[in-house]
Amino acid sequence: MKLIASLIFYQQKGVTAMENSEKNKETPEIDKTILEINEQREREKEEKFVDLIIKIIVSATLREYYEKSDKIPTVQPTRTK
What whole-number percentage of the chain has pLDDT above 90? Predict the structure, then answer.
């Protein structure tokens, strides 16, 4: 009985070692994919940051424009008789 248990253990350990070697072969591909995903996320973050800066600048510019335009007196039409 101990012999059978030992054989099963070694077989399982051998399968695990084979699985690990297969996983190690896939690891560079997985690492490359992870790196590409991280780079894509960084690009998206940078794009969102630039968009936010643009919105802030446009908002401030429009606010300043509207504040100045409120101070300009309206032109009264002149009526001639």
Answer: 42
